[in-house]
Amino acid sequence: MFLPSPSLTISKQFMKDDLLYLERILGAIKKIQEYTKNQTQQAFFLDEMRQSAIMMQLILIGEMAKKVSVETRAVIDIPWKQITGFRDRGIHDYFDMDLGIVWVTATEDIFIVEKAIREFWEKR
Question: Is 118 annotated in the active site?
């Protein structure tokens, strides 16, 4: 599917707001990277404070993702629905979250999101 360039489809107001939301997503990703640096999955499973900190950042990413305009979402190829769905699940089913999924999201999936947002940022 053809997607027009961001400069043609995103109004200035959307772009201003979206850049703030994307910047906050990148900030949360940076925190997650700091929290997972030199950590093992086993250590993560035993550290409730680290679990809580990482979950909070993932929830914030989902919250910010909900605020990004449809126009901007259309030009950044990341799984927006899964990101916002993770936020909803984290809020409503926090105590039932699968820590294995949280770990993979925080240590693998997050890099895909970061890369796509940074590429968008450079093109704007």
Answer: no
